[in-house]
Amino acid sequence: MKTKLIVERSISGHMGTSVPDLDVPERAVNKLIPEKYLRSTPPSLPEVSEPEVVRHYVELSNKNHHVDKDLYPLGSCTMKYNPKINDWTASALAESHPYQPESLSQGVLSVYYDLEQQLCAITGMQAFTLQPAAGSQGELVGVLLMRKYHELKGNDKDTILIPDAAHGTNPASVAMAGYKMLEVKSSPKGLVDLDDFQAKINDRVAGFMLTNPNTLGLFEENISKISALIHAVDGLMYMDGANMNAMLGIARPADMGFDITHLNLHKTFSTPHGGGGPGSGPIGVTEKLAEYLPRPRVELLDGNYHLKYDYPDSIGRVHGFYGNFGILIRAWTYIRMLGPDGLLDVSKVAITNANYLMHKLKDVFELAYDRTCMHEFVLSAQAQKEQGVNALQIAKRLLDFGFHSPTMYFPLIVKEALMIEPTESENKETMDRFIDVMKQIAEEVKTNPELLQTAPHNTPVGRVDETHANRNLNVHW
Ligand SMILES: *Cc1c(COP(=O)(O)O)cnc(C)c1O
């Protein structure tokens, strides 16, 4: 029997706080607010005590799946453990206010400054902006930087190349920034098809947006050659850095010829993720683009940090204040706690874990590209589909065993794709449990397909109508 999803906890007269009596004349307050904005009735808010609120949220979190509960192998999203010390640091500075004067914000500004320096060291870039609130907003900023570069140089360009394996936000960002997008094919090895790529390069090409390692979890072997070809037509190289978890301390985008990269702090750098944000997608650039970054930028002048606005060629501000501070300080804590050696270990373990899972599963499900992978790999459930069970149904069945599903149906070039990313957070025992469950599911496809077709069976909510939920979003209480 399914439990009722939400119990009404509001009881008239219950309260979680006690507010002191008003100690100024009521009418004096009211005079400041125009009559038409005054409330005639109190707002309708839930009436609950503090323990009731806590129980409500704990109950909701138990009904949901999250990384504190069990494995969350959602490929490309890097659902790694979020260390609790990140929250400790963030709460220490939570009371700071963006309108505080700079003289009282030196600690906050020093975090911004140092985080930018750390991200520069990790990527080899020359400057960073921390403003973008997500990887996708970072992409838009990156393409706007490309536009600025070409405009100021008088370059007449209108096209950006994108591989067919790209994440959907890439073409969306290109279109939003006013460029045409031209798709480049993947080779049988799962990398950029060089012949197709070369055939599409011409003077109209403003740049190339590439995810590396790509969305199949494969490192782009020809990256230096690709960068040289793009630079030869004065194009710019943009790295979608969502997969940076595979390269920390190992390889730097700037050394591969990239001019711009975003990083998803909520992926690689362990800040909370999902549920709609907030996220953070800083953008790093090489020297030739630094002047165009959004302003203000933090600078260190005579031992004092301050926000500098005087960048006449800046593309302008892209976020209120200076980015999602609560997220930035968590990522900064993570980087500072691990240090260079710790970050290198992150990527080494992430890669080892992914290869372990891949080798254990490739006899059970078809492997889309049978090569050593980086931090993730893609299986195809095409053979299972031919037996009546598709990737979606396998994903739903996993929920019955307390695992989140892998990413499904992406990248688009793999039929019935299941993209698996264990991250470095998982130990061998957890991965072995997952392997056993995947094997059991593969057996069930043969012996009891109906069990999969009707899954999940053990979750508080069965199958939701995702299209309806997307089109008719209702986020109200
Ligand atoms: C997650 C992701 C993005 C978009 O990043 P958001 O922070 O979710 O906006 C872009 N590209 C790839 C490959 C991704 O995995």
Protein described:
The chain is of the alpha/beta class and 477 residues long. It has 2 domains: 84-338, Type I PLP-dependent aspartate aminotransferase-like (Major domain) (Aspartate Aminotransferase, domain 2), CATH 3.40.640; 348-466, Aspartate Aminotransferase, domain 1. It is 37% helix and 12% strand. The protein contains 14 helices and 13 strands. Strand 2, helix 6 (169-176) and strand 3 (180-184) form a beta-alpha-beta unit. It is globular and about 75 Å long. The protein starts with 25 loop residues before the first helix and ends in a 6-residue tail after the last helix. The mean pLDDT is 94. Bound molecules: pyridoxal-5'-phosphate (PLP). Pyridoxal-5'-phosphate binds next to helix 5.
